[in-house]
DNA sequence: CTAGAGTTGGCAGATCATGCCAAACTTTGC
DNA sequence: GCAAAGTTTGGCATGATCTGCCAACTCTAG
């Protein structure tokens, strides 16, 4: 299995990052192949795990989920029990869209999606601050989007 | 145009958030409809802008893009020129996956994707810090992922 | 020049998308 | 309670698409 991706593979990934639902013939045209080898390359990229999957991108505000908040979290201690308890608990909250353990200034960072500031405040005080691992939380609230999306630079 | 989404619409969105490339018949089965009305609902959700689009989710590490960094940025001043200059410049950098202007402690927050720490350091010192708007930057580096993805809670 | 591996393009059958129409269901007004 | 109007559904036919298979092509090594 050749590990490298050639120019056509990269073009395929770029196209599918733009529109994950384009038909295979459309994709084949866009990258300059006939449908057969194009589909084979896509399947191979999926098998190799280069393509993790496909998702629909939903519009938060139109679903009543207009507020995104970035929260930085400090733990009381940094031992494994504290960390695991935090991870287990956080995984259960649907409001938490992303969460990472970090090194540096804080111990964890998360992106929380709710309807509005009031709902966020309820989440923070009723749930987040009640996790025994958590000592303190600081939030940054995006007011304007300069750039969004999860596309990787190819 | 009825603004509300019923239970079936929500189930459609949930399924398409999991697998944006499932066929319409598959989706219809999953939500308990026949293909015809199912497709009509999907098209309507797209027209209404509830579904913004579809994207392939790529595996960063397998593409040599293994490092994500969250950077908080402080501006020298908060006037419109400073902000616009920053926004214009940042939009051009492919390493910047997301970027928001914030209220609160810092002025902007961004997610940067690079191959490794060295590449990030080059980006920060050679590009980010040279934007005249920027006074200082603090970074948080995710070491472990507790939860990832861009799915909205439905 | 030849052998072999890897990749491509075309083809056939199965599956799927799409638009249309009648039937079923829900809502509204009387 | 009942009929009319509006909405949503399911089935069907047609055209497009997917998918696996095989022959032809390209490239490299000996």
Automatic annotation (TrEMBL), chains A, B:
GO terms for cellular component: cytosol. Keywords: DNA-binding, Transcription, Transcription regulation. Residues 5-66 form the HTH asnC-type domain. GO terms for biological process: regulation of DNA-templated transcription; response to amino acid. GO terms for molecular function: sequence-specific DNA binding. Pfam families: AsnC_trans_reg, HTH_24. It comes from the Bacteria. InterPro entries: ArsR-like_HTH, AsnC-type_HTH_dom, Dimeric_a/b-barrel, Tscrpt_reg_AsnC-like, Tscrpt_reg_AsnC/Lrp_C, Tscrpt_reg_HTH_AsnC-type_CS, WH-like_DNA-bd_sf, WH_DNA-bd_sf. This is Leucine-responsive regulatory protein. It comes from Devosia equisanguinis.
């Amino acid at each position: 299995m050749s590990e490298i991706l050639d120019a056509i593979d990269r073009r395929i990934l770029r196209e599918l990052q733009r529109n994950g639902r384009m038909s295979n013939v459309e994709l084949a045209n866009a990258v300059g192949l006939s449908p057969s080898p194009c589909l084979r390359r896509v399947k191979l990229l999926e098998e190799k795990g280069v393509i993790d999957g496909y998702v629909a991108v939903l519009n938060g505000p139109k679903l009543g989920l207009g507020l995104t908040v970035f929260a930085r979290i400090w733990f009381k201690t940094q031992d494994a029990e504290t960390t695991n308890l935090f991870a287990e608990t956080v995984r259960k909250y649907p409001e938490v869209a992303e969460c990472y353990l970090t090194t540096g200034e804080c111990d964890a960072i998360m992106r929380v999606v709710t309807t509005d500031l009031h709902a966020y405040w309820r989440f923070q005080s009723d749930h987040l601050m009640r996790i025994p691992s958590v000592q303190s939380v600081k939030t940054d609230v995006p007011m304007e989007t300069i750039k969004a999306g999860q596309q990787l630079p190819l």
